[in-house]
Structures are given as C-alpha cells and as structure tokens.
C-alpha cells in the first residue's frame, strides 16, 4: 500500500474498498486501539464505526481535504478579538506553551490548562475531561 500525500491521491477504486481508506484513518494515535490498547473512551468498535461511516458515505476524501487545504502558518499568531481558551492534551502533536499563548494574545486568553490524558481526538477519547474543560474555560463568561 502506498502512502497518501494528499486527498486527491485516493483513487475511486481505493475509496470503494475500505482497506486503503481505513489505513489513512487509522494512522497515528488510533492504531493501537485495533490491537487492544486503550485510548481513553475509544474502543475498537468506535474506530471501525468511524471508518464505516466515512466509507459508506464516501466522505473520506472530503474529510481529509480539511487538513490538506489548511496552509496557514500554524505558529503565526492571528488577531483574535474574542475570548479564547487553550486546553493542552499530552498526546496532541503540538502543545501550545502558556508563554506563547500569553504573548500571542495577552488580553483574550481566559483559560489555559495542561491535562493528564487525551490527544488530537480529545472530545472522542476523553469526553468527560473535554466537557469539564469547556465548562471551566467559559465559566467566566456566564
């Protein structure tokens, strides 16, 4: 199986079968789940449900396009004029340091927290922790 560089490399025949498409969806932190490892609340069935949903609705390519088309400079601070919060999950690829967040947006950062569990799919992996973070982050705005 060849690695995919961008979504348009998924040919129609590959999308029509679940194996190549699922290899793209499974890569990264979810790989171990299929081998019995635990990733918070995620189960093997959760991963397979997600793959099946993308496969049956033929939406895998459009889902991947979001990542491919985002050419923004990730570390370039943007002018954010609304309050925002940062929750840093230990298994996320980029973990914004508090010093960067405070320098980038000194007036708008209302919540910053480093957590013990979770990663890129935090809402899926750790739903309880994720919802607690939302509540804590925006409590000051009530």
Tell me about this structure.
With 142 residues, the protein is mainly alpha-helical. The chain has 2 domains: 7-69, no CATH class; 84-141, no CATH class. The protein contains 7 helices and 2 strands. A two-stranded parallel ribbon has the order 1-2. α2 (18-26) crosses α3 (44-56). It starts with 11 loop residues before the first helix and ends with a helix.
Helix content: 40-55%
Strand proportion: 5-15%
Order of helices and strands: HHHHEHEHH
**Total domain modules:** 2
Major sheet strand order = 1-2
Q: Look at the structure and give the mean pLDDT.
A: 76
Terminal Cα separation, in Å? 51 Å
Task: Supply the helix-strand structural class.
Answer: mainly alpha
Tally of individual helices: 7
Rounded radius of gyration (Å) = 18 Å
**Per the principal axes of the C-alpha atoms, what is the gross shape?**
globular
Query: What's the total count of β strands?
Result: 2
Q: Mind summarizing the main beta sheet?
A: 2 strands, parallel
Descriptive labels:
single chain; 142 residues; 2 domains; two-stranded parallel sheet; 42% helix; 8% strand
């Amino acid at each position: 199986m060849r690695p995919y560089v961008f979504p348009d490399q998924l040919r129609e025949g590959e999308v029509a079968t679940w194996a190549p498409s699922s290899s793209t969806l499974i890569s990264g932190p979810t790989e171990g789940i299929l081998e019995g490892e635990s990733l918070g609340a995620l189960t093997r069935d959760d991963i397979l449900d997600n793959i099946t949903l993308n496969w049956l609705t033929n939406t895998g390519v459009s889902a991947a396009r979001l990542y491919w088309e985002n050419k923004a400079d990730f570390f370039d601070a943007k002018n954010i004029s609304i309050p925002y919060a940062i929750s840093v999950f230990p298994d996320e690829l980029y973990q914004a340091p508090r010093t960067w967040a405070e320098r980038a947006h000194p007036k708008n950062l209302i919540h910053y927290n480093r957590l013990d569990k979770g990663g890129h799919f935090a809402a899926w992996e750790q739903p309880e922790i994720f919802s607690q973070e939302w509540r804590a982050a925006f409590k000051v705005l009530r």
